[in-house]
## 1
Amino acid sequence: MAKEHNQPKILTAQMRLLERLTNTCAVSGDEGPVREIVLEKIKDHADEIRVDALGNVLATRHGKGKNRPRVMLAAHMDEVGFMIVYGDGDGLFRFDTAGGLDERQLVGKPVWVGADCIPGVIGAKPVHLTTSSEREKSISIDSLRIDVGPNNGSKVKVGDRGTFATSFQRIGKSMRAKSIDDRIGVATLIELLKHAPPNIDLLAAFTVQEEVGLRGARVAAYAFDPDIAFALDSTPAMDLPTWDGEENVRYNTKLGAGPAIYIADGATLSDPRLIRHLQETAEAEGIPYQLRQPGGGGTDAGAIQRQRAGIPSVSVSVPARYIHTAAAIARVDDWKNTLSLLYAALSRLSVDTLSR
Amino acid sequence: MKSLIETLTQIPGPPGYENKIRAVVRAEIESHADEIRVDALGNLIARKGSKAGNGKRIMLSAHMDEIGVIATHIDENGFVRFTNVGGVFPRYAPSGRVRFLDGTIGVIGTEKITNSYKVPPLDKMFIDVGANGRTNCPIKVGDVAVFERPLTEMGGRLVSKAMDDRISVAILIEALKKLKKTPHEIYFVFSVQEEVGVRGATTAAFGVDPELGLAIDVTRTGDTPKSITMEVALGAGPAIKVKDSGMITDPRVVDWMVRIAAKAKIPYQLEVLERGGTDARAIQLTRSGVPAGCLSIPCRYVHSPSEMVDYNDVQNALKLLLALLNDTGVFQMS
């Protein structure tokens, strides 16, 4: 397929959008701030836009011609983070995690709390005062507090969400940010909606509550009832050298190796026809790709696939190191290639894709 | 029926890759069904009969998939690292043989074992397919395999890989062939992806929208030395499920099944399975809810490469299923 002028690209504007999206706080169940950005960016690029009862943004863009497959693309707006559960006074707050966070990652990190991003820190005992046995153990979340200081204590209330206070940074070929999972999918989906190929009806779902169990995608898929679905997400790259010099056989994905196509995760066995379609597209267009190692985890595809009488689904992720921690690292080229692969794969879709 | 069981058990069909077994089932039932379709996830759905009088729309479900493994990495020496697709117990894996969908056979090996009382997890195992480097290894990441083990008859018992749930697939095929007249609109569903969380039956049940659902699946037994405590024994008849960890059977369905079994003088046992679930759960919870039950075939060594059933139980399960489908009263809803 010839490269057209409609082809979406990652340029300065797209990088700025990703920066804005990753600097925004939107923990599961409180996706409003990201939803506002999405609505602002897509308002002139869809035939119909609505926000459903759970807060998903559902945007439809019709193609032209006959026999257009109805293709759902899902990217989740929410991120993992914290929720304030109790105020101890003096600007100190007990908190719990929202979504899959390793408690060992928490201590000593700067955080933002609430819609106004009140700055705080998950306090740590200075090394001067710890014993050697204390330093051998991880610290349970019950004994940790978020400290926002006495002046801001009244601006924080029980139920407020928080995130790690990490600002986006472009570092050469890489990007460092919190919530690359899945703002990079959100940014990709915005571009695909703006440049939707005419051979399909594009049904864009910017979903909520993925990190707490694929809840938004479930109702979004019921509403759209599509023929085919793609989940756009971010997946861990654990491609570092092993400590003992043995071959690393459990990397999940590798940075720089291109978009990660899913075969099997804990929630979905990808439709083999869609895996093949993505692989054939990548090979025909000369786009690098990798197969994510089969294993656990899950994406919105898990909820979509099982909706109604069944929806053939597959996931494509941008690989990123250290996701679900304070700072993840992804490669610009992987993002570009993910966008190129998805655009090309959508352009080549037809009602016959599933009949092969 | 034994040769059908042998054919069905020997065809590889790991979750998500049921195309070969689906083709065989389809060929068996094509001329006996009133209508056949394959849904978006790959469930094979065959209708027989139309509703008449008190007839109901009934969904029967037996799953075509079997537990399997999937390649996650090919190392520099050509060994295949893998993970499970469905409930593969690590204790049954070492030194077993697997067959990939392209026919490649492999042997499961383990990294060195330092404590022989502890079973290593699957990620400390590998599959040896006879390759000596990444380049000449015929397997690539994402390729799927199933246990390799032929069917054997011993006494009145049949042993094979994939008895779970091909034995029920065989029973459904035979029931469809033998069912001459029925007041019901019966959907024989040969489902996919049961072993990874009853995914196929979930979408099939939505599509069929039944008024009554019955899964046919294997269940564990408590009749081997120092086994789990469970009433079900091999050879004592098909089991009527009362509860498992995924479903509490509608009591009206249990009563109906018991009544029909007693009337037809078919031996049966009541089953409470503490761990496990079947397609019946998916049927029960679809749309606004469906009365559902499960006809179980007692099976020893479930999820091992040597799953054992009693042939009398199999024949009695078929008899009971036919008696249920021929019952014009079905069960009373009130």
## 2
Amino acid sequence: MKNRAGQNSIGPNWASWFGLLTVLLVSWALFMVFVYVPTEAEQGIVQRIFYFHVPCAWVAFAAFGLVAIAGFFYLRFGQKIWDDLARAAAETGMLFCSLVLITGSLWARPIWGTWWTWDSRLTTTLVLWLLYAAYLMLRAMAEELPQVGRLAAVVGIVAAADIPVIVISVRLWRTIHPAVIITRQGRHGLEDPRMIATLLVAFAAVTVLWIWLLMLRFSILRTARRLTELGGGLAELRARLSEQEPKRGRQILDLQSR
Amino acid sequence: MDNLSYLFAAYSIIFAAVALYVIFLWRRQTLLDSRLRSLETQLSEIRDGLAKS
Amino acid sequence: MSSFATILHKDLRLELRGGQSTITLNILSLLILTVLTFALDAPSRSSLLAAGALWVAMIFAGLAGATQAMVSEWENECIRCLLLSPADRGAIYAAKLVASFIFMTVAQITSLFLMVFFFDLNFDMRIVRLAPVLMMGAMGFASLTTLLAAIQAQIKTGELLLPLLTVPVFIPALISGVKATQAALAGLPFAGFAQWLKILGACDLLFLAGGYLLFEQVVSED
């Protein structure tokens, strides 16, 4: 527990600095995507979607891993902080997973001529989205239960453990997704070094954006939990005072203001 | 190469979604602010009551 | 081990003494297959459609059965007594799992026969070769729903939560199960769909291990 009076101020200062960093990095990445990088020869201008699409996919998967890891720590050690972290990761992961699906089909429509195909990576991402949705629905429905953290952690762990089998089975099922990063011949799909530089900056920008949103959500959840605890403490204090125990009540009050 | 609209749509959706999430977070934050304020008034009420007695 | 046998015995006895879940599951399977026959315009001897219909029937009947079994357990506070007893959590999980596996298998046999009738197939070796595929599918599904139905049962407003939780996790098993069923119905030998059986087996192991290890976390009380 940190110092209640000092550090518990709402709207922490690091967030604004980190937010500034996020804005700078994202603007830089956008500049590179729209001005700096040359247009890809075969796919034309739509290929520029790719620079944000791929980092979003990476973030969606990373967030899902974090949900499972935080869930595991919560089951193991029982500190609520892990539960809050898992919840924040699931919400932000859902955001980026949706963005992957949307930007992906906006790219596929002009290039493949269809909004959606049952290609292996698309299918895996869709299943991932469904798993996120189930996790968040469970959290929403069980919000009032004291054991919600444990139930959600179990679902998060089962879902993450399921991902390797999903990937294998779906890949065997079918695939037509372009292997951009390393093609079968072993060379990069990205010919120009400027494309690689742009992709790297976009990776950094989207990752920092995710971490910023994650930390904001996490701190809000932490604060909400502390406020609930404080409210419970206050209610208890009132109950004791009304039981005509002024002495004991004053002691508790002193403890709290310290 | 008339696919500019797809590119435009993709990036606007990305930033619209992020903006919506930030607004959602901001509303949560103001909710917490008001909760904190009500707790503070409750605490000071109790303190006043104790000081009188 | 003895607590495992006792709980399993209790569940089976309850069912034999006029429990409804087997009957419900079988009628539900019949309904689903009927609906699919109409919806897919099936009597065209398509074993592809038949394989899909079989698995759809299995999933929805299995979901209904698992909900019923677990929710009644929670409503009667029966689960609390079980948890207060010295029975190992793993044994409770295993007993519940085996019971729902048996009920699902019974329903599967029914839907297998119905499928042969509705989709105008023949009773031959192909149907026999389906047995291990379907049993592996039922095993995986039962181990998953036994864990997840215990979650759903604790949430008052969560009647629809179980399909939401179960189906996405079950997708790899569904893909490989349907593929293996199609191959078996097309008359291929086991070697022809060994890779799908391997994936199905991996799913079963994963769901079993996950359920066994995590069941305690789901049912323990703070």
## 3
Amino acid sequence: MTTDAEVEEEDRLRADWYGLLARLLGAEPDDAFLSSLAELEGDDSEMGQAVTTLAKTSARLNSEDLKHEYFALFIGAGESELLPYASYYKTGFLNDRPLSRLRGDMLSLGLARNEGVSEPEDHIASLCEMMAALIAGDFGDPLSLEEQNVFFEKHLNGWAQRFFEDLEAAPSAHFYMPVGTIGKIFFSIEAQAFEMAA
Amino acid sequence: MKDDELKSKSRRNFFSAGLGTGVLGAAGAVALNLGGNEAEAAESGKKSAGYHESEHVRTYYDRARF
């Protein structure tokens, strides 16, 4: 695959951030992931401060703590503090039209769920993973900015920012509090950058 | 072409300013640090299938082949 050269440096960085968010939100971090996060150093910027907080929190907690936090925040049918699905945020219901629209777009982009996975595709982690792959061209040619913008507008913009604000403020969020801040800042930059490019 | 270059440059500056130059590469650093599959997947630019461990994102994307 020779698509690497076609991906601009800032797009590679964007894909990395989407990938990191996908990884943070898709499952509770294990100890290796936590020690890697603990090594991060932020600068004085808003994002830098959130990264520093995440690093400090990662150094303080272990994977067992994270298991409990992740469960309280995202799992536990009907009892989790948050429901990180596009459909829920947009309509108040799970598995509603936003999910079927996403499935339609995934089909035309040649994306499919892994076999045996029952989790709906409109989970924030899955959507971040898709954005990372579409930007970097992991599964074919990278999408143009315009195409990325269409996907972003349709499936992420708006509700994702609200979700990250909720995550930042969720009662059980310790590790995930700075994750919420990071997601909030990143998505607001993304939204502004797409406006600039349009 | 020149317009594109300008646009690209201003977008790059925009991201540096927004994310903070100090943390721009942080996400990539974490991925590299975790090494193994992720790094290889990133290098080959092909398969990152299964690089997440949870049910949530054990999603595998495969471009339809004709």
## 4
Amino acid sequence: MLVWSRTGRALTWAFALLLFAVLYGLPIGVIALASISGQWNGVLPSHMTLEHYVNALQGDSLEQLHVSLWTGFVASAVALVSGTWAALALRPLARLPKRLLDVVFFIPSAVPSVSVGLGLLVAFSRPPLLLNGTTLIVLIAHFVLISAFTYGNVSAGLARLPIEFEQVAESLGARPFYRLRRVTLPLVTPYLIAAFSLSFALSMGELGATVMVYPPGWVTMPVGIFALSDRGAIFDAAALTMVLAISTSIVLVGLSHIPTRASPR
Amino acid sequence: MADIALRLPVADERPAVNSWIAPPLLILAALFFFPLALIVRQALTGDGDVLSIAKFASVFASREFHHALGNTLTIALAATAGCLVLGFVLSVLIAFTPFPGSRVIARMIDTFIALPTFLVALAFTFIYGSAGMLNESLKALLHLDLPPVDFLYSQWGVMLSEVTVYTPFVMRPLLAAFSLIEPAQIEVAASLGARPLRIVSRIILPAALPALVAGGSLCLLLTVNEFGIVLFIGAKDVITLPLLIYDKAIQQFDYTTACVIAVVNVALSIALYSLYRFVVAYFGSRRAGLV
């Protein structure tokens, strides 16, 4: 407690709530409001409509929802496998090589997404691997950008794992693969789910690399939202943003309900 | 003597490498490091085979590059400063003056990190845009014909959006660092007559310093790399390095110029990332709030 007097405390609370409301409540509130407003010429919209949601859930926009969900699931699943693999392989290494390789796996998160997209365009626009204009290049871009976050989450989980469980399993004669499957992986499951959730959310909102590489047949929601707002259809853009936020939340809430045998400590 | 002998460094018996690391490393090399190397090659050779720094020289001499580099650095530094001030104030409010709903708000800020950054830029056009809520309210109140508030389509609009989006990245380590402060320390200081501002400056700020430096360097990296907000604000004279790369490659099909700018941008980002890693290693991850 920093403020002891009653009025002082009430004033601080009011100040804090106002600050949070203006900074974080208001932006989300206006997007929600814009997504249901028919016309907005005054301070508040003059009438409400669900038309923008109808637009967002049919035709191109519905297609973009599918594309984003697929991209998010596939890229996150691949990133989860490779990130977990990397974190497990790095675990028994000596301190110095471990730290060096750790940086190598983290670097993709430090490079601007537009440059990741540009690199893929330059690398895969010529034979032998001609991927420019395919769906695969979008998936690769998303995988590269989220891989560091997946790796980071899993290796943080492994670092917190008490070593005794695995030592006990080993002393009881469990083979390495059995130990991995029955002891280590179940214990880090909460971190695997957290890693998948974070990378899925990041993939759903990814814009920088996607605008560089996407083919006309594989348009993700953020690209679609930008196209709408660029065209001046800002209410449709707001509705599609709401669809993006809500569908991401549904997936994340669903993931958080997966039962695990270990709870994070 | 025995004491000293025990402290001698023991040789690390763990292996330096193992072959299991190869598959994920190869994937990353093929999909990330190889494309990155090709960016450097294209920047140095253009579409031919001769190595030259001619393209670098011409890009470095161009005004649009200077403009973009200047914009990127100004916006990143200002936004980071804003995030640090705002993040510190908000974290102190959450951690040390617990008000009803402060936990829910801390949670909400955590989920805010997962939202796409352009959401805020889009929301700001509805709030602060020329036909937005603020301008319409002021026009109605003051009987004006023209929108009085006009900052959104400038550097200020980008900075304000970035401050909103990246403040949670400062708050997370700060809140973790604050949880390590012994509450009794503050109570004793207060009972000895220290006023809140003095407690903040003499106890809370020193304890928060590692987290502030770590969060600040992370913010600097993220704001230098930011693309969505700048694209959505769409102000003609606010071009940053990532936007210039997009413009050159996608709008003008000038890959070589795009690659030269990308080399600069990536070098800048990796330098900032090294700074971040150095800061975290220097303070130790626990004190930097990255427990």
